[in-house]
Amino acid sequence: MPQLKGIKILLVDDEPNILRFLEIGLQNEGFEVLTAQDGLSAITLVKQFQPHIVILDVMMPGMDGFEICRMLKKTENLAVIMLTAKEEVEDRVKGLNLGADDYMVKPFSFDELLARIHARIRNHFPNMWGEVVAGPFRIDDRRKEISYEDKVLELSPTEYELLKFMAINNGLVLSKAMILDKVWGYDFNGEENIVEVYIRSLREKLNDREHRLIRTLRGSGYRIDVQ
């Protein structure tokens, strides 16, 4: 996953262990993070901290997550991801109707939470997504340029979209079907081996002759490995 600089996240949960786990994980991803254990503290911190995203537990003593979400969405320009141990459809519908932008049921994968955070940033704050750093890659979506080790790569539009998708999902295995869907579109009717053709071209431009940067996982897909 890429590191996005300047993104502020407020975590709101009455369980200290969950708060600490998420706080450490998100700080390691490059986010600025503050935490709150109740609704009133959360409302106060939003005014002071001005977060871009609030990750909000539903079940809390006093003011619950639904009420906090309703209050924040009336006055603040931010994205809300709600967390709950409940799986009832009516709870999800209630949260979304109050303005929540996404909903996750505990327990959840940290990688999935990261993916949802990135989706919210792209949707709510596209200008902040304009430049993303992922290891040696610098992706400038406004210029449609990708630099590798500070050198701008000469890429076709499709090569750009493919490399951006892989770099942003650094460390994750991406199947050919997933790549075709995200880069070429769900209605693409060509052959899957088009992915192999473009991967080969990217490896040449990255001087990745030994496939150490773009790895092939037989039967699974491809993965970019960068720190």
Automatic annotation (TrEMBL):
Give the keywords, sorted.
DNA-binding, Phosphoprotein, Transcription, Transcription regulation, Two-component regulatory system
Highest taxon of the lineage: Bacteria
List residues of the Response regulatory domain. Answer: 8-121
The DNA-binding region ranges are: 129-226
Location of the OmpR/PhoB-type domain: 129-226
- What InterPro entries would the database entry show? CheY-like_superfamily, OmpR/PhoB-type_DNA-bd, Sig_transdc_resp-reg_receiver, WalR-like, WH-like_DNA-bd_sf
Instruction: PTM 4-aspartylphosphate: list the residues.
Output: D57
- Which Gene3D superfamilies does its entry note? 3.40.50.2300, 6.10.250.690, Winged helix-like DNA-binding domain superfamily/Winged helix DNA-binding domain
Q: Which Pfam families match?
A: Response_reg, Trans_reg_C
- PANTHER family assigned: REGULATOR OF RPOS (PTHR48111), TWO-COMPONENT RESPONSE REGULATOR ORR33 (PTHR48111:SF1)
What is the protein name stated in its UniProt record? Response regulator transcription factor
User: Which source organism?
Assistant: Ferviditalea candida
